Amino acid sequence: xxxxxxxxxxxxxxxxxxxxxxxxxxxxxxxxxxxxxxxxxxxxxxxxxxxxxxxxxxxxxxxxxxxxxxxxxxxxxxxxxxxxxxxxxxxxxxxxxxxxxxxxxxxxxxxxxxxxxxxxxxxxxxxxxxxxxxxxxxxxxxxxxxxxxxxxxxxxxxxxxxxxxxxxxxxxxxxxxxxxxxxxxxxxxxxxxxxxxxxxxxxxxxxxxxxxxxxxxxxxxxxxxxxxxxxxxxxxxxxxxxxxxxxxxxxxxxxxxxxxxxxxxxxxxxxxxxxxxxxxxxxxxxxxxxxxxxxxxxxxxxxxxxxxxxxxxxxxxxxxxxxxxxxxxxxxxxx
Length: 335
Ligand SMILES: C[S@@+](CC[C@H](N)C(=O)[O-])C[C@H]1O[C@@H](n2cnc3c(N)ncnc32)[C@H](O)[C@@H]1O
Fold this sequence. Notes:
Blueprint: H1 3-14, H2 16-27, H3 30-36, H4 43-50, H5 54-66, E1 70-72, E2 78-80, H6 85-88, H7 97-110, H8 113-119, H9 132-160, E3 168-172, H10 178-186, E4 191-196, H11 198-208, E5 217-221, E6 233-239, H12 247-260, E7 261-271, H13 282-294, H14 303-312, E8 316-322, E9 329-334
The structure holds S-adenosylmethionine.
């Protein structure tokens, strides 16, 4: 093995260290706390405010300075580095703090990957310092961080492909409403309904409060594994959902979708799809590992598997309408 390969392998393995540093800083909301201070704080000042250990914060802050995420003055005070506040202030409209917190939760599962490969199920969950409820909320808000950048261009592509001709849609597991809001914006006469778990519906209510969209979007708390779906819809959006469970649950989801849809209605399944020969692409392969590390039965599907499952549920003309290597590929089918 050449030295260069040795270096590449050791660097690959050490990549977790900066990720953990950034994850811990976001879990503790360090950047926001620094930004809210009247003057840049020292480590002991910040540790006192956030009730942290001084030695612990000193190590973390030193690493954050080395990573160019904080700056340190000659008086040993810390400030958020240029260009970071927009993303790392948890109160900024464009914040990615929930996304980083969610990824830190994923990382705890990934760190026990060999356990999951051996046993077939994730290692027992370790919560963040904020607890499981806060982790769940971070997950829902992380979906918005991701979706808010993808939804506009993707829904525009769907419109151009003639897929936005619905009057009332169901957003199954629609989280805090990122895609629903985009459907309402790009199809101004449509109405919709989100079915999701209570924690997600709470976040959707906050996002919708005081908006015009609130009148056009119904929010329903429910469990899509247990409950029948809201009916009288002509479009069902199943976005980043099926990868959390196995073939049998996907087949049942498609059968319930078929029952919920009006005749002539359409289902659209947004996800990241692995090639049929399961050689890649890399993003899909790693996403499959993510599902192994985080879920008991989840997996990454190929387009062919989804098409077959839709047809078995009674749909016709199932096809890849929007191709993509990432989580913006869309398979559609007609009732
Ligand atoms: C990966 S997120 C996708 C969110 C959204 N569809 C999107 O594309 O951004 C999965 C969503 O499914 C919801 N979910 C998971 N299990 C559910 C269940 N049993 N019943 C209803 N919703 C569920 C979660 O709360 C979450 O909002």
